[in-house]
Structure formats: C-alpha cells, structure tokens
Amino acid sequence: MTYINENFQKLQAGYLFPEIGRRVRVFAQENPQAAIIRLGIGDVTEPLAPAITRAMVQAAQEMGSRSGFHGYGPEQGYDFLIDAIRKHDYAARGVEIERDEIFVSDGSKCDSGNLQEIFASDAILCVADPVYPVYVDSNVMAGRSGTIDANGRYAGIVYLPATEENGFLPNPPTEKADFAFLCSPSNPTGAVATKAYLQKWVAWARKNDAVILFDAAYEAFIRNPELPRSIYEIEGAKECAIELRSFSKRAGFTGVRCAFVVIPKTLTGKTKNGARVSFNALWNRRHCTKFNGVSYLVQRGAEAVYTQEGLAQTEEQIAFYMENARLLREGLAAAGFRVFGGEHAPYLWMHTPYGVSSWDFFNDLLAKAHVVGTPGAGFGPSGEGYFRLSAFNSRENVLEAIARIQRSFGR
Ligand code: MLT
Question: Are residues 242 and 316 both part of a single domain?
C-alpha cells in the first residue's frame, strides 16, 4: 500500500489558470464563431526583442561547434548573466549584491513554489489576500496548513486582506508568522509598494526574526523611478528578505523560462537548538540537488536583455503594454467600472458590477463580450467581487475588448 500526500486533498480545485483554460475551451467548442480575446493569464504577446534572439542564435551556433559547446553549466547560473544582473538591476540602484547571492532559475513560479522547502515544516506562512495562488497552494501541499474553511481560508495560514480601504497594501501581521510573501507591483491588484510601506515590513521582519519573500516579477513595469524596485533599497532588508525576479514579463520569456532569486548571505534562520544557519547555504544545497541550471542559450538571451539595445527594445515593449493598461483603465472607467492598478503594473483590478460574483462575471464577460479575464476569487477570498484583466495583448485586441465591454456592460 502506498499512501498519498493527503495535503493535496486539502486543495479546493484545480490550479486557477488551467481551470480558466478549461472553461474557455468549452465555451469555444460551443461557440465556434466567437472571436475570443484573452486577457486572463498574464502571458506576453510581443515577440522576443531582436537583441535577445540574435544572442540566442549566436549561442546555438557556438553550441554546435567543438570549441563553443557547453555541457552542464553552474547550477547557480553563468557569471556573465549574474554580473549583468548585479550591475543593472542592483548596483545601478545603489545595491551591492555578491555573485554567490544570486541563483538563476527557470521561472519565478517554480521559485515561489520551491522556496518554502528551506523553512521548517511548521513555519507559519503569511500572505496578502488576494494573492498569486502559488504562494498558498505550494505551502498547503507541503503540509503547512489545516483544511479550508467556508470563507476559502486555510487554517494555520495568516491572511492579510488587501482591500480598497488599505489601497490593496495590507500592513504586516499582528499575529505570529515566520515568513511572508510580498508582491510589488502586485499580482493581482496592480498596487505598488512605496519605500515607506516596505520599511514597515522590514521593521516587522527584523523585530520578529521573520523572512520576507519579495516577489518583484513585475518591477520593470514601475513607471515612477522614485518607487522601490528591489526590497534591498530598504535599509536592513538584506538581513530579512529574499527577492524573486523574472525575465518572463519584463523581456517576453514566458515561453523561454529564466528568472532568479537573491538570497543575501547575511540572511539567517535558526535551528530548534538556537543555532543560526544561512538560508543562502540551504537554498544552494537545494538548488544543486534538484536543479541542473538554465540552458546556456537561454542565459545568453537573458544577458542580452541588459545590453544597450536589449534594454531599449524591452523597454519599448513594456511601454507598449503599459499603454494598453492605460487604455483599459480609462475605457473601463468610462464604462462605469471602479478600476485599480494598471499604472505601475500590467494588471487592472476592477470591481464587478451589480454585486455579481467574480466567477459569474467571468461567465458573463465571456458570453456577452467574448473576453476572458480572471475572477478575483481565484486569488483568495478577499478577491471576491473583483476581476483582473491583463494588459498583455495586441493594441487591436485591447481596443476591441474595451469596445465590446463598453457595449455589453456600459452604464
Ligand atoms: C498570472 O497571470 O498571474 C501569471 O501569468 C501567472 C504566472 O506568472 O505564473
């Protein structure tokens, strides 16, 4: 008899985005004439920038030669990419990160799901609600929760409601928590943290010997240079925070796969005996055991993001998506929706009309406007009554989606 990991049975439904995909496929089969516009999962639509593809083609050619062939690379990533990250993402903003504090990976989704392995199995997770579902589901799978209650909350997890009243930026918890995910700019609400807000969190973490997992996957969408892009811009954060970054949305790598985690060597946790242990060393051990590195081709592509040409080309794409976000924000507001986000993030967070539930609005929007979005409830119970639209699509589709929403729901 082989027993299963019964923690999986605590999960309520399938993972959010495959569930949306399933519903859309059913609708498309039943309505083959419908021209569906997908603003659901935040998947990029612009092709890779020329600087990136050129670097990857060149890397492929190198790999096809005896002298340029690369087998297994360093699990943590090649120095050429790590140094580009250190220089452009950190030193340029006054933050010194050492080479061995960066771990290149194949995506922030995997990183945010895997990082929980370096915490005690009874460590208490704290999340905003609504939140990127991976943070919660991966900890439920690992046994860090009880069962789910009628409100959709797992026992043993600390939830911080992100509401209109607090600008979708909840304060640190007052109850005990050992590690907390913070996402800025936020997926799903699009809210962005200020320095003062992050200072509160760093103070909380240091006071409580807790760890912040700062998910900065959308930092490139921040339009105001005064806003922090890295938690390490906050004094003391290197003693209490891990940072996640991704090339997915910033450079169109959702299908290429490359991201990284930063774990300062000054960040430690404790054993039950009271000894201090470096989380960097634990993650390095985990990374080397379970991961064989991102391919050479992909890392050369990621390195090219930081060239002068790569930076200009990817910034142009980000500006294009952010113009989509502006059009959506204004178009939805003109149709009478209460809309948030979309100013420093590629996501619009809107209130569902007439008090309909977020899944009912999903069905309505699909049926009437043939537009796909993401129900707020899929991100947590406090997402009920809200709906997320992504700005990742062609201009033509975004304008068409706005026109259809205004026709079908305009007030
Ligand atoms: C989203 O739509 O929330 C993201 O695309 C999901 C992800 O990055 O995994």
Answer: no
